[in-house]
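Researcher: Going back to the complex we discussed earlier. I've cleaned up the inputs and rechecked each line, so this should be the final set. Can you rerun the prediction on the complete assembly and write out the structure?
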Amino acid sequence: MEEKQITLQIDGHFITVPEGSTILEAANKIGINIPTLCHIDLKGTCIKNTPASCRICVVEVIGRRNLAPACATRCTEGMVVKTSTLRVMNARKVVAELILSDHPNDCLTCPKCGNCELQTLALRFNIREMPFNGGELSPRKREITASIVRNMDKCIFCRRCESVCNDVQTVGALGAIRRGFNTTIAPAFDRMMTESECTYCGQCVAVCPVGALTERDYTNRLLDDLANPNKVVIVQTAPAVRAALGEEFGFPPGTLVTGKMVYALRELGFDYVFDTDFAADLTIMEEGSEILNRLTRYLNGDKSVRLPILTSCCPAWVNFFEHHFPDMLDIPSTARSPQQMFGSIAKSYWAEKMGISREKLVVVSIMPCLAKKYECDRDEFKVNGIPDVDYSISTRELARLIKRANIGFPLVLDSPFDNPMGESTGAGVIFGTTGGVMEAALRSVYEIYTGEPLQNVNFEQVRGLNGVRRATINLNGFELKVGIAHGLGNARHLLEDIRNGHNEYHVIEIMACPGGCIGGGGQPLHHGNSEVLYARANALYREDANKPLRKSHDNPYIKKLYEEYLGKPLGEISETLLHTHYFNKSMD
Amino acid sequence: MSDIKLACDVAEQVRTICDKHGNNPGELINILHEAQHLHGYLPEEMQCIIASKLNIPVSKVYGVVTFYAFFTMTPKGKHPISVCMGTACYVRGSEKLLEEFKRVLGIEVGETTPDGKFSLDCLRCVGACGLAPVVMIGEKVYGRLQPIDVKKIIEELE
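Model: Rerun complete. Updated structure for the full complex:
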């Protein structure tokens, strides 16, 4: 059935939209940019917050007494809307001034300065003074976790974080408590996030319009280490970073800046610049072997084998199942994430080879993710109290650092990664997008299982941005059923099905963030534009297609690593260095 | 976690209340009403039980409990004292009366004495303005009180 269409008039332009469209959506279609603040609708993902609570987007609807919020008012036939009358402009300004009356006036030192939606509105509305500053600001909680910094003084109660945490991720760590000026956003019983079910996925940070939720910044610590002549500082860069970093320097979304990034990292003073993609290839060797091992035992009738096997490279996802599915800790793969595999190999194999002591070596990771900051701080990833990965800095932090170090990023030349841990295949690159780990695993599993070369390495059926995707892959007659979910809410549905005995899969890939790592909590802010995510995903598939090697097990340095050091996948040394175990973190 | 462990039968009764409402998240406020009526207040553990029965985050339950002034997380005293702060009572000195209750009991508004006998709250107008200033203790209304009367009333109740 065809959708009913409605014609209305906005600022003198006639426009026809499907029934049910809001004034905001209609206006966007014809390029009229109505300012918003609480509203976010990341089309194509389930990230949506439409409480119509801030009233920044008010417009005049002819024949209506009061102003209408454009984000929540549906278009009707013949409606006449005016989006920029004097009345509207004054109302928006007063609304912004009222919000600012309970907001600290410390933009200069705010971590969100330059990227704050409230600041942008203040500029846009020409706010030059604070007419409502009579009352005292209500002091609210501050908290610094390993990943996320929460400064509730800056909160404007848009509820985006609450929507994402509850409706999208179904984590339920953050919610609004109390009322009026005492309102704050906090975990249950006003506890700290560290005492809640927070997974540190960072999606709250990714949508926060102001400086209330930001990443924990480790750039000063990094600068100290880089300046210390007694330290050897090496860096690994996650795949999703190269597809997004350019945005911070004016490149269009989806521009690959791999070579420039490596150059900039050298300029910053890193002694060696390596690639997490190398460790992603290593992950496939271990995880792929685990898949094959479990599958073979299952097909041979071993009743002790539980399927499906779930990927384990996403640290927020690991936190999620440790909190919410403690009865299923034996299902996920035991393979560590690429970040941790890299750290582990760097501080053993590579450090021994180079004759550098563990104490002297600093391993830094550049990640699109905030949960990675938490992950490298986990006790099981430390040897004698020294972490495998010392700390992780996000794409945004790296961009700030490059600007601070006065590196002319757009103009710098391309530079290659160092070896041996800089070489990667296309399979390692696509780890950064939803479906990528699965595709990478399939490329290796297919060849190893069937013993035949794979003709077409592109598994189009696992790509895309649908929340849950399923595919059947023919492995020489055996039908391998795979599932992919991104966003923890989608993951929860799959997990609950499995818990209730309805499982149709052999292997499932899960990423906590919508879009996978390209939409991670540490990436340049998308400000509600999902085109950015599509562009980043496409960039990674482009980089993959341009690689001479596309399958992890073809990586010559990975082969060498097994020959010289590890022996074989799932071997004794691999188990110690590259695998982990999980903990019951249930709050019940 | 809450310091006082809920008695098993109370926990069970709360579960029954949730069941009675079909474990429907839309019934949260009604469930909280009944649970508070049952137990006098809504300790953390009880909120956790309700959240798990309704399959909603406990932060949501806590959000509702802290939003509405009616809900309380502190146990009420055996004699809950409510001082009216409505207009008529206020102009006839209920603030001084409240200060005297605080002084005599050694607690703030919203608190309960350590022996569990008295709790202190404010309310807005019980419709007995002619008797202003008015204080309710339990179901009983005391009218035309002076700060000097406070000590005597407390002693009588003890």
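Model: Worth noting: The beta strands of chain B are 79-84, 118-123, 135-137, 140-142.
Researcher: Good, that matches what I expected from the previous run.
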